[in-house]
Specification:
homodimer, 181 residues, alpha+beta, Trna Endonuclease, Chain: A, domain 1, 6-stranded mixed beta sheet, two-stranded antiparallel sheet, 6 helices, 10 strands, binds magnesium ion
Amino acid sequence: NKEKIISYGKRGMTLEEDLNDTNMYYLSNGTAVIHKKPTPIQIVQVDYQSRSTAVIKEAYFRQASTTDYNGVYKGKYIDFEAKETQSATSFPLRNFHEHQINHMKNVVSHNGIAFVILRFVSTDEVFLLESKDLFLFWERMENGGRKSIKKDEIISCGHRIEYGLHPRIDYLKVIQHLLLV
Amino acid sequence: NKEKIISYGKRGMTLEEDLNDTNMYYLSNGTAVIHKKPTPIQIVQVDYQSRSTAVIKEAYFRQASTTDYNGVYKGKYIDFEAKETQSATSFPLRNFHEHQINHMKNVVSHNGIAFVILRFVSTDEVFLLESKDLFLFWERMENGGRKSIKKDEIISCGHRIEYGLHPRIDYLKVIQHLLLV
Ligand SMILES: [Mg+2]
Ligand SMILES: [Mg+2]
């Protein structure tokens, strides 16, 4: 459905905006409670101009120690990271940090559900990749293998998510299916 | 054990520091994966001084739309807020925002586990109050009743948590017990 992909691409929405919208839809429909965590900031200087107004005058972006999204779906703990790439042929693994991989491994070891949502910007294609598969590609890299996941590999291991209107990126449809398997 | 309480009080640790330490202990011991969410910030102006250094020059604190802590314990979704009060006789409900109460109600409706951890600063006493009890006190207030929870009520409804060394505030012991009941 090329026409659909193009029309959504035209909207110029980022993956994060689409996911926030999707999560809001899930929340209002009673499907799940999933939120994006705030960006971690190191605050250095704050001006308290009045009792009620505090202005942060100096702060720095910190690296996140976990993934960006988490929440609850059917009693299960859900945890994921969303990433976009400009590359058309592969997904660079440098998009992930080692502590994010470790965090996802911890989540899985406590019977949580962890995954990543990957978007190829040039073609506006979105995939859900289960953490178990991400770990394999990560280990391949650590063992001296390629530093990215080939798009063909994502197509065969991952789960394609077609854009929709409500919700825009229905990733829980994939999770629901995996829970039934 | 008054001596113990006093000695811990002398440390001058905040509830947040004690809980972060506790969560780090849980993580390294393989008990649970629970993190504090970053403080939500509205960024207005950023200076990109070099390729790698971005300095936030103007930003404001935003109100959180959820609770501060969440994660996974034995496959279950855990969600809580931690609050301190200077009052010795009651816990003011204005410490909570309505959207935090609504968030906890949403969590419970999806079979997650929601609660609050309350600390009385003057006596350095810590209690875990289950969300179902918090909701009752909140509704009492909404129906024109008192705007706080009496300490006596917290003692009878809540679960006292004694300070420890490792972990400092073992709130999952309470949750484990509740899961077995
Ligand atoms: Mg991120
Ligand atoms: Mg808070």
